[in-house]
């Protein structure tokens, strides 16, 4: 009997020890974006606090003191285990996430919170079944606010104004469209933007208004052309390493997913929208008439410039096994229907 009791006690201790190992996990977040930017302190950091709260302290997230990987290697860093959690735009790795290019087309994002809810549902219905991001755990998929045209000295009022202008772009979809309008696209990350603008390396850039203040480059921008719905939108992910995910207990994984997915996607998109509205008001106040809304002829020319890109995307989507026209139509209708319910 004593031997039997010892065996039971030993097994219990072993299982208890294993349960602790499975439950107590510290995750490394790849901190490449400014830590004081609202997307971090009001968005991701609050989410990390929620993770710790819903798991009763068993799962913690710690931002890295310096970048574990550049934004262009964000996804790969999580895939390989260099980082455990990452957030960033899909477009920083051109060609790697073909399906996400759908939301980069113009005039699709009037409210990033609404569009992010639609995007999460489109991802779950169309993109995830193709195996997209199978190598990681997807915690959220959201969009940023629509980008406007921000110029140093000369404004963009007509399609011809693009000719010869050196424009910083962050995605190949946007770059190809601008090139067709006669602009010279120059690739560059947000961390390079201040140098590009201050030294006159570029004539302008495409950004959501809030990023001018978030990256403190508003003093270099003197002309803005607002594109209703955005000349582009960024697709962004929040992902976790699969091996680290498996080390978290089933109970805690369930708790984390309850605050992730659509809820987290909407939260990030809504933050973008709210801060973009505030930034727009500041720009209008400081620039006056130099903050203009695009004319119908300019909007039409921009729309035409993306036609080739849309056609290519439909072809690439077909190769991925989905009907691109159907997916885009589903996304657009969701945005309209969700907007009407608010």
UniProtKB/TrEMBL annotation:
**Pfam families per the record?**
DctP
Which superkingdom does the taxonomy of this entry point to? Answer: Bacteria
As given in the record, the signal peptide range reads 1-22
The answer on whether this UniProt entry bears the keyword GTP-binding reads: no
UniProt keyword Chaperone, yes or no:
no
Alphabetical list of CDD domains matching this protein: PBP2_TRAP_Dctp3_4
Bilayer-crossing regions = none
Q: Which GO terms describe its biological process?
A: transmembrane transport
Q: Which UniProt keywords apply?
A: Signal
From the Swiss-Prot or TrEMBL record, give the protein name: ABC transporter substrate-binding protein
């Amino acid at each position: 009997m004593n031997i039997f009791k010892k065996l039971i006690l030993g097994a219990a201790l072993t299982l208890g020890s294993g349960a602790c190992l499975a439950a107590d996990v510290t995750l490394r977040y790849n901190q490449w974006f400014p830590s004081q930017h609202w997307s971090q302190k009001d968005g991701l950091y609050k989410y990390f606090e929620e993770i710790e709260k819903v798991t009763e302290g068993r799962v913690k997230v710690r931002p890295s003191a310096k970048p574990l990987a550049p934004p262009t290697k964000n996804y790969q860093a999580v895939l390989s285990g260099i980082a455990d959690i990452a957030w960033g735009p899909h477009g920083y790795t051109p060609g790697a996430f073909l399906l996400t290019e759908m939301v980069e087309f113009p005039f699709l994002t009037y409210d990033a919170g609404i569009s992010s809810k639609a995007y999460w549902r489109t991802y779950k219905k169309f993109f995830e079944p193709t195996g997209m991001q199978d190598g990681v755990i997807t915690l959220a998929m959201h969009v940023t606010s629509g980008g406007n045209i921000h110029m140093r000295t000369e404004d963009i009022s007509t399609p011809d104004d693009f000719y010869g202008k050196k424009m910083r772009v962050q995605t190949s979809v946007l770059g190809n469209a601008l090139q067709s309008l006669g602009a010279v696209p120059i690739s560059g990350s947000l961390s390079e933007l201040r140098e590009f603008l201050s030294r006159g390396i570029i004539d302008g850039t495409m950004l959501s208004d809030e990023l001018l203040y978030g990256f403190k480059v508003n003093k270099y921008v003197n002309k803005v052309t607002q594109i209703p719905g955005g000349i582009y939108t960024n697709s962004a992910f929040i992902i976790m390493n699969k091996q680290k995910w498996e080390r978290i207990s089933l109970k805690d994984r369930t708790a984390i997913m309850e605050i992730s997915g659509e809820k987290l996607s909407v939260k990030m998109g809504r933050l973008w929208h709210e801060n973009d509205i505030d930034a727009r008001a500041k720009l209008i106040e400081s620039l006056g008439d130099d903050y203009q809304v695009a004319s119908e002829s300019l909007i039409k020319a921009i729309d035409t410039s993306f036609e080739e890109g849309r056609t290519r995307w439909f072809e690439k989507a077909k190769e991925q096994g989905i009907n691109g026209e159907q997916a885009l139509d589903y996304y657009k209708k969701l945005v309209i229907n969700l907007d009407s319910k608010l």
